[in-house]
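Much of our argument rests on the idea that a fold can be written as discrete symbols. Part of our work consisted of pairing the sequence of a single chain with a tokenised description of its backbone. The amino acid sequence and the backbone structure tokens for this protein are reproduced below.
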Amino acid sequence: MNKIAMNNIQRAVRENTCEMGTEEYASFMRTLAEWVTSQADMAEYAECPDMED
């Protein structure tokens, strides 16, 4: 994993959520987690050799 990229992402999330209330922050983080999970799932699926046509 690229540590610099992860640090940049973490900083951007902190900067963009610092003024959110608890409920809004929790909702944002859950939405972000769902998106990240779906992106990881699609990346794994794309690499799966068993799924060739």
Observations:
- The mean pLDDT is 91.
